[in-house]
Amino acid sequence: MSADRLEQYNGADISEDVLEEAVRIFNENYGVWGEDAAKTSRNLKPGDRVKLSKDRLRREYLPPNADCSFVRVLTDKRVLGHACACRWICNNKTVCWVTQLVVHRDYRKRGIATAMLDGLRRDNDDIYGIMSSHPAACLAAARAFSTGLQSVQMEVVRDYAKVVIEASPARYVRDATLRGSLFQPKDATGAVSSVDTNFWVNHTEPLAALASVRGVSDWPLGDLLDGHKFLLILEAK
Predict the structure, then answer these.
(1) What mean pLDDT value characterizes the chain?
(2) Contact 36, 227 (CB under 8 A)
(3) Backbone phi, then psi, for 34, in 5-degree steps?
(4) d(Cα 3, Cα 74) in Å, to the nearest integer?
(5) Which of 80, 143, 173, 174 has its CA 20 to 30 A from that of 232?
(6) Three-class SS of residue 101?
(7) Could you give the maximum distance between any two Cα atoms of the chain, in Å?
(8) What does the pLDDT look like over 76-116, one tens digit per residue?
(9) Under a CB-based contact definition with an 8 Å cutoff, are residues 126 and 146 in contact?
(10) What average pLDDT score do residues 119-139 get?
(11) How many Å from the N-terminal Cα to the C-terminal Cα in the chain?
């Protein structure tokens, strides 16, 4: 992405115009609702695009009671993607949590997600986290915040998950339920490190991506269940 431009903002400096463009990128590129969309809300229909409003983006993904950051990548003509994060203190450690990561569908597999996440990093961060149904987001986080997927330490995920999630100022993070054999050894669903978010997005694309990843490397987070997201937590490198 050498020809692209990275812009960085603190939470209080994010203008309404920047938020409006972020909402447009999300609504056009994030994904569609799955067959059980009504479990999230009875007004949702399978196949409809997942959308959010500008107010909800600011309220839930850039919560006003948290130290938030926002980055985006642009060319001269368009915004290619954005990433949001919020920070909080947990057990005297600074947690940086990626609350949203979106790349325009025409510009994926170019390192943009990794570059944006790298742009969120601060020297005083101790822990990084992300919940995502897409393996590409987890891979980008592993590259930006550590040295790649092979460096993921599952005991770090296990030891930090509950306390970090419960302390989060982001409601959707705080309300998620830990799921998988990493947290419940008798779990036989195939999930290893996941969260139940009651977010019933269509998993066709993420499952295809997961199959591709598993074809070339070990995938430590297990299967992707409907209504769930993968959970990845990393110590700062």
Answers:
(1) 96
(2) yes
(3) -85, -175
(4) 9
(5) 80
(6) strand
(7) 52
(8) 889 999 999 999 999 999 999 999 999 999 999 999 999 99
(9) no
(10) 97
(11) 23
